[in-house]
Amino acid sequence: MTPPSSPIGDMKVRKLPAIGPKDPFVNVVKVLSNYMVDEIALPSTFEQLRTTSAGNKIRILVDHLVLNVTNPCLINALLTLKWHFSTLAEDDRGVNDTRANACEIVSWRFLARISERDAMDFCLFELPQIREVEACANADANERTSLLPQFRPNTPMTPTRPGSKRVELLRSVSNIGIPAEEQNQDEDEGDPTSAFTGLNGLEIAAVADCKKFLSQKVVQKIVHGIWRGDITFWQDLGAHTTKKPQFYNQRHSDYFTRLRVPLYQKTFEVLFFATFLFLYYAVLVERNPYHITPLEAVLYIWFAAFAYDELSEFIDAGSIFYAVDIWNGADLIIILIGVAFLITRAIGLIKDDGQIIDHAFDILSLEALFMVPRICSLLSLHPYFGTLIPCLKEMAKDFVKFMVVVAVLYVGFLTTFTLLARDSFSLGDMSWILIKVFFGSSYLGFDIMRDINPLLGPPLMLVFVCMTNILLITSLISILSDSFSKVIAHAREEYLFVYSVYVLEASTSNRLTHFYPPFNLIPLILIRPLRLFMPADKLRTTRIFLLKATHLPIIGAIWVFETAYESIKGHTPMFATMGPASEQLTSESTIPSKKPRPFLSNRASANTASQHFPEPRNDDGPASCCQDPFDDPVKGKKEGERAVSLPVDNPELNGLKAQVEDLSSKIAELTALIMAQQGTEGQE
């Protein structure tokens, strides 16, 4: 009797993507793209993929990736495909959205099934250059080749504009997931993924708006570890130091690398803005129309330091993260207003014109509209305010779109009323009257409607008042309420996305030496001119020495804070379980768990050697986090329970034994699938 086939077993024997440990990024992307296109042909919602049988194929894919794939660019490829499918033209059935959601679900479920150390390595793996770019003798160029390179691999000596980086990504992502039958036609067009070189998984997730991925616990532990400095990218400050994600070890790391911790960067940024705001108010209160005072000169230095710091940040991150952070728009406006004030002030002092000088201080007074909210930008790290900011952003977008309709109707009524009242009101007077009527002064329109035209004035004004005060205003409120509801429904995801971008923006700088403003003007004045004749290594050593000399008080403040924090609350790093193992796990019997718990239940597994990143880590034991709890046939039996043995010389019993074993395997497969689903539901 042949046992019936298992549906789960049938799904397992289907072709799964074959990914080698050293396959290039473009091959990994295309293999996964072909699998998604072939296997996901029916539309499903995100919840259906996550909780119902519609997601069986991606569950099987996750099992395959965990057990068989060790390529470090796997997460980068999945998140790149998520962006690719989400940017394709919308189809009637929504299959592309289903594939995009599938890629995002696979990426975080894969991370939840491996050790935390491997999860960090996968998320922070930086896509390497396809061609090795020769080392440049220029020191500044040497410091721009780590995290966000400004050089394309196909043209290594030609820098691209930072603002064009996102355009390159959008252009290249459209050529990634092409069907298998069309791939041969595009083989000669170059690597479509070349624009992604230099990006790690978290950066691609931020660019691709993978908010659900970034909100997962395993990913947020990595983000929060970067924020607190438990995960660092620099071990020491040296002329030949390279950037690499690693766990912070106080015994072996240069303490000056704490200057790169996003928490401290943002803290001193707030202190800088507080001083900036104090100088701003002092200059406005002093308001000397005759000459530049010492306070005003210091304000100019703060303006220059702030502008240079923003320029450096834009060059390092490009438009990828710079445009995502809403506060960067306020920074640009602050700089533009400062430049306008400086030019107007200079013209007024040269011409000795009091009116121009008054205009200069009037321009400077506009800075308060942006500087005061900018110093409160740290509130966006709080869940409440971090949720309100995306809500206001989406509501502002819908408001601008709706005002286009209002402007069209307004121009039409303005033209009609102006022509009807050509003998009574001018164009300017009629414009302000209709604006007042639109914002609620309906009685004003009714008072002048007969002056406009005795016959047509009253009915037209009645129609205008009804359309503006009833139809348009009510519609605008409804649209803004709907926008607010959509964002607030995913409040946690929106907040964590803002927080993640905030952290990545502070940590993705590829410069070894990062000077806090206003100290950043010192290397600009003293070091940059030396690039013309000083060797690169010596120039970098000089920058490091200058950094340590100028930032020693800041390092002292950081040391006092960390020492006091450890003495009061104790030092409990987010990734304390992921450091070098002190005890080796040599067998599965050392796991103190009686039942399988899919999500990182075995914290000790983070200390074992990794099957995904097999480089030496002072560990000898194999990773146990990916073992199937149902592999052991006697696992789960009570201690001392005797297994039932069947005689092997009886054909009937042998057939019955085969059926029982087949049934047991099917039950095991189904149980594993249910346990995996329950585990992912607990994390989603």
Please describe what this structure looks like.
With 684 residues, this protein is mainly alpha-helical. The protein folds into four domains: 228 residues, no CATH class; 114 residues; 109 residues; 101 residues, no CATH class. It has a two-stranded antiparallel sheet with strand order 1-2. It is flat, with a radius of gyration of 31 Å. The two termini are 43 Å apart.
Structural features:
684 residues; mainly alpha; 4 domains; flat; membrane; YVC1_C; transmembrane; transmembrane helix; TRP_calcium_channel
Summarize the structure.
The chain has 26 helices and four strands. The protein has helices at 7-12, 25-39, 46-51, 56-68, 74-87, 95-112, 116-123, 139-142, 165-173, 201-207, 211-214, 217-228, 262-286, 294-322, 326-351, 354-365, 368-375, 383-420, 427-438, 442-452, 457-488, 491-507, 521-526, 536-550, 552-569, 651-683, and strands at 151-152, 155-159, 231-232, 246-247.
List the helices and strands and how they pair.
Blueprint: H1 7-12, H2 25-39, H3 46-51, H4 56-68, H5 74-87, H6 95-112, H7 116-123, H8 139-142, E1 151-152, E2 155-159, H9 165-173, H10 201-207, H11 211-214, H12 217-228, E3 231-232, E4 246-247, H13 262-286, H14 294-322, H15 326-351, H16 354-365, H17 368-375, H18 383-420, H19 427-438, H20 442-452, H21 457-488, H22 491-507, H23 521-526, H24 536-550, H25 552-569, H26 651-683
Helix pairs in contact: 2-5, 4-6, 5-6, 5-10, 12-22, 13-14, 13-17, 13-22, 14-15, 15-16, 18-19, 18-21, 18-22, 19-20, 20-21
InterPro entries: TRP_calcium_channel, YVC1_C
Keywords: Membrane, Transmembrane, Transmembrane helix
Organism: Mollisia scopiformis
